[in-house]
Write a structure and sequence with these properties.
The chain has 305 residues and is α/β, with parallel strands linked by helices. 18% of the residues lie in helices and 29% in strands.
Amino acid sequence: MADSRPADEAGTVAHPRPAGEAGTVAHPRPAGEARQIEPDAPQYNATLVARTDETASLAYFTIRLDGEPVAFEAGQYMTIGVLVGGRMVQRPYSVASSPRTAAQGYELYLRLVEGGQFTPLMWDLPIGHRMRLIGPKGKFTLQPEDDRTHVFISSGTGNAPFVSMIRTMIIDGVPRRALFLNGVSYQDELGYRALVEGWQGSGAFPVSYIPTVSRVADPRNAGWTGRTGRVEAILEDVCREFELTPDNAIAYLCGNPDMILNADATFQELGFAEESVRKELYWPKGKEPKLAAAEGIDPTVNDDE
């Protein structure tokens, strides 16, 4: 899930965006839509200290705890919430920042879901607003001392834990060869694109960035010359191109349930053992929890659907 910040907003952007990654300004919501968020409450223990908008419906939020930062492992998630009408409305999100920079806050990558119970509240929240942050939880973490090629596969905002993992490996000086696949509907939804391309281009981390868009005919994808189709649909070709085998690669899957199940099936067909395909599922409304349990998936709600 994603990352965070302090009670004092001055100079608190924990992860400045690399050149070429500048986000848009915040997009205020129409008057009359906002629900009343309590400005302060005994349950609040953190502050929204930074926000950068990627598009009108995608943004990076940084939340910082009041006291000492809570330790976590790259790949884990935190739960954030605000009090509305006497009820704590909250959701878990993967942390995109590194545990090594937790004192600066926890960065989370969110998608606005119109009509959702939580994300519209975050879009209404001003910098400096108090909120609740608890955690961490989750077992979607890197295997220790694994020198296989890491195949990071995500749909939408599911790339957040992989950003945390790479940021942490860079800080720790323990790089692992990686492929970073991210599937979206539209090219402007490729969050962290400039950051990952920067790592690849500079050699700061041995990663190959492989984005793909699915709605090729849409005008928003005009000029796109990269791969097309859902991210799980390009897996076989990618494995063949990079000569990935069950002996030299390990896969990490994070995103919507259909992508997880389809990608997992592809890896099984390619001969990958179950323990070589690690999964984190972003839980959308309407999917039965027993499906995830049956597939050995740790379900987490990340897109407020």
